Amino acid sequence: MPEPDAARIHDLAHWLIDGAPGSSRPELIVSEMCERLTAAGVPLQRVAVFVRTPHPNIIGVTFIWRPGQAIQIERAPRTIIEDPMYLKSPLRLAFDLGQGLRRRLADPACPRDFPILDDFDAEGITDYLVTPLRFLSGENHVTTWTTSAPGGFRDADVAAIEQVVPPLSRLAEIYTLGRTAANLLNVYVGHDAGERILKGNVLRGDTTTLEAAIWMSDLRGFTALSEALAPSELIGLLNATFGAQVPAIEKHGGEVLKFMGDSLLAIFPASSGPEAACGAALAAAEEAYAACAALETIDTPTRIGLGLHVGKVSYGNIGSETRLDFTCIGPAVNLASRLQGLAAAEGWPMAMSADFAAALPRAARPLGRFQLKGLAEPVPVFAPG
After folding, report:
1. If you average pLDDT over residues 20-31, what whole number do you get?
2. Structure pTM?
3. Which residues pair with 274 in a beta bridge?
4. Which of 37, 42, 94, 264 could disulfide-link 132, Cβ–Cβ 3.0 to 4.6 Å?
5. Which pLDDT score is estimated for 250?
6. According to the 3-state scheme, what is the secondary structure of 312-372?
7. Phi and psi dihedrals of 49, rounded to 5?
8. Which three-class secondary structure state does DSSP give residue 45?
9. What are the structural domains of the chain?
10. For residues 195 and 190, what is the distance between their CA atoms, to the nearest angstrom?
């Protein structure tokens, strides 16, 4: 087999330096890079590009290429760093120390000092190369390269790989910075708000008006719990309670906007009409109540109270010149908050406005008319039928 085509390798490196024109997503860049390396004469069997990310649950994303197959994308949980297989993996050398590694399995004298090498040997892999992706930030990420070619990688193959790794590192860092910003915004302000911020909706007062079902919930007995529990226990209880609500809200198309102590504010945009938004909010509420009930014990009550309303809200950037919050405000939000407070005072699990109840596909049960703070007249309040 002829050695790699130097001109093609040179062109590939410059394609990466130029930002990989024509490939708009990381998996497409990895795929085309590997295809072009193979076409240039580098005998690749499997390539993995692993990039870490600052996410509370996911430590990083791996893009895995194999000849003739679609790119495989895997997201590794943070718990992987405690996995014995990872602790005995050569990837730790790249991540923790920025060290590369080569194990030429075709050589009978090759050390078998990592368990994964036996797996590669069983698959017919003849050479295994680990190359760190060194970011300008000082972080180390990693690529791994394998071949099943007789005798393993040639010196020219390794040189070709090493020629494309530096520009790949720069490109990976650029994409990672963008993805990091998106991930952190999604985690801290929500997916929709994060997208709006990334698109440039960052001016103070830059708001829009939309109709939405509004969810305002809190943890019952929080004041007493805060006095009875240690701070770490209280935070654990809050996390468990929010963890029971948020998946249900997001599953049904809601957007969590804010955690305020023990309270949670979310909206369900009524882009398909108030009926769909209110139905989704109630379905999410029922699932959240069930999830909270499954968590509850005598020592750790996880009962939540909920106010539900539907109406127009102002949604966008509100705050000072140096500190903004992406949230929603308006009389409709105030009413949802008052309903949640009424439910707490009356010991109800849920209080719904007349507008919310009227939009539901099923009948609601009237609870009476109540005077709410800030409103001139008593308002009718409902519960699920």
Report:
1. 92
2. 0.64
3. none
4. 94
5. 94
6. EEEEEEEECCCCEEEEEECHHHHHHHHHHHHHHHHCCCEEEEHHHHHHCCCCEEEEEEECC
7. -115, 115
8. coil
9. 6-189 (3.30.450.40), 191-384 (3.30.70.1230)
10. 9
